[in-house]
Amino acid sequence: MFMIIYCLLTSVSLTALGSQNKTMHFVTEFVLLGFPGEREMQMFFFSLILVVYLLTLLGNGAIVCAVKWDRRLHTPMYIFLGNFAFLEIWYVSSTVPNMLVNILSDTKTISFTGCFIQFYFFFSLGTTECFFLSVMAYDRYLAICCPLHYPSIMTGKFCVILVCVCWVSGFLCYPVPIVLISQLPFCGPNIIDHFVCDPGPLFALACIPVPSTELICYTFNSVIIFGPFLSILGSYTLVLRAVLRFPSHAGRTKAFSTCGSHLMVVSLFYGTLMVMYVSPTSGNPAGMQKIITLVYSAVTPLLNPLIYSLRNKDMKDALKEVLGLRINQN
């Protein structure tokens, strides 16, 4: 199905190009403008983003270590959380190091291949995050709504299967959009007013209008985003209905506290993601697109470990013991 669509789009593109009686020089690299401004402002952005990146690695790395070393956290909920923190490390690393190099660079160039490699890993990791958020919501649904059946359903084997499905599915989703966009004719200019290789700016640089390809990609993004989101919404609707039936106030408070961290992460991630990729952003200012992208690609991964650790007593205790043990050993 996708290959038929791809062949049709390629045929249309070649026909349109053939009708133009001029020689086109296809670009071999792009220029990522990043954050414009004076050198002092550039260095401020560099320092700020570097600090955010290092804190993100430290926070998420601490959660991964806590889940690995503390046997009390060897339960499905924390296994999902540990994988999610590990994912966040790679997610932020898919864009921020190149962003930092770009700020210091005079040319600010990225090769054509490098641009689409970054595109692939950034969006594949983002898709994997959507799947993990959905699976974590399902885990909370089982724990709260089906507590008696939870141990028999969420076994260690089933937990591992869900983790593998999230990782594998996330990386299998984006080859088709990558192929469709990379085969578009880019004949100049090659300047992307962004700090990452993003579909919107790439569509704007194509030599010919490609509404069908844009429609396919926006539809694809909508399915990837709304599928897990509706699953999360359904899980927490059932959780809310079950929690409101709890007889004790203490039970309701504990249940809301358990789910509150996850809901905050979902709100942060999906709020910016939907604004950026579900609705066409061609009419939005480039500065706004950069801010939104920066929030979900760098700020959200920084806040996630804070949200989970500050609102979770078991995680706080595990982090204190693990960090204290490592310090004593050193």
TrEMBL record:
Listed GO MF terms: G protein-coupled receptor activity; olfactory receptor activity
Signal peptide: 1-18
Recorded family membership: Belongs to the G-protein coupled receptor 1 family.
Topology within the bilayer: Multi-pass membrane protein
Keyword Transmembrane: yes
CDD domains: 7tmA_OR11G-like
UniProt keyword annotations, A-Z: Cell membrane, Disulfide bond, G-protein coupled receptor, Glycoprotein, Membrane, Olfaction, Receptor, Sensory transduction, Signal, Transducer, Transmembrane, Transmembrane helix
Transmembrane spans: 42-66, 78-96, 116-138, 158-180, 223-244, 256-279, 291-310
Top-level taxon of origin: Eukaryota
GO CC annotations, alphabetized: plasma membrane
The protein, known as: Olfactory receptor
Source species: Muntiacus reevesi (Reeves' muntjac)
